[in-house]
Amino acid sequence: MKKYIIGTIAAAFCCAVLLSTIQAQELQQGISDKILRFHVLANSDSSEDQTLKLKVRDEVGSYLSVMLSDAASMEESEEIALENLDEIEQIASEVIREEGYDYDVTVSLENCRFPEKTYGIYTFPSGNYEALRVVIGDGEGQNWWCVLYPNLCFSGSMYAVDEVSGEKLSVELTDEEYAAILENGDYEVSFKILKFMNRILE
To answer: At a CB cut-off of 8 Å and minimum separation 6, what does 138 contact?
Structure first.
């Protein structure tokens, strides 16, 4: 009987882990389907390259804030970004040259793998997201990112998340998705498993 109980508990535990993993993946997918990220990668982690990264970010960001100001959907934001990739690349290249560097720069709209990241009061789970990427040189330095749609990058002061931008995000996401990103990245399955196990053992 003891072995049977242990086996049942182990099976229930595995099922709970699997269920929680599936739910977390579905939640991440739901979030990623509704946001467009802005991603700038520095050539290296040297102080000079990191400073250059921020200067490129500022110039490209100023351009994007105007171009995307009237975008009403993620799809429209992606379309505008795609139409202006060459212009964005030119802007970034000009900054690099003006600062005395000869790095190449590539700009693309692509699906990228991101680790868990916090921006302002929001923590986005790890997973694949559509992103407008600006890669400077080798792109091996620390990166900078924000959310282009819904616009968390440019509301209020540049690159600061304010109440208005947060409201836009809450409209785009479901209640569950919005609540999840406010949980400070707490995507651990242990709490759900604990509740599940308690029900099994009652």
So the answer is: 43, 44
User: What's this model's pTM, rounded to 2 decimal places?
Assistant: 0.76
195 CB neighbour count, 10 Å cutoff: 11
Among 118, 101, 106, CA closest to 161 = 118
Per-residue pLDDT of the chain (202 residues; tens, 9 = 90+): 555 555 455 444 444 333 444 455 567 788 888 899 999 999 999 999 999 999 999 999 999 989 988 888 899 999 999 999 999 999 999 999 999 999 999 999 999 999 998 888 888 899 999 999 999 999 999 999 999 998 888 754 456 666 666 788 888 888 888 888 886 544 444 334 444 444 544 4
Per-residue H/E/C for 68-107: CCCCCCHHHHHHHHHHCHHHHHHHHHHHHHHCCCCCCEEE
DSSP letter at 125?
P
Both tokens of residue 180?
Answer: 């999840």
The alpha carbon of 188 is separated from its chain's Cα centroid by a whole number of angstroms, namely: 19
- Asked whether 153 and 61 are in contact (CB, 8 A), the reply is yes
195, 188, 186: which is closest to 13 by C-alpha? 195
Q: Which candidate, 8, 3, 32, places its Cα nearest to that of 177?
A: 32
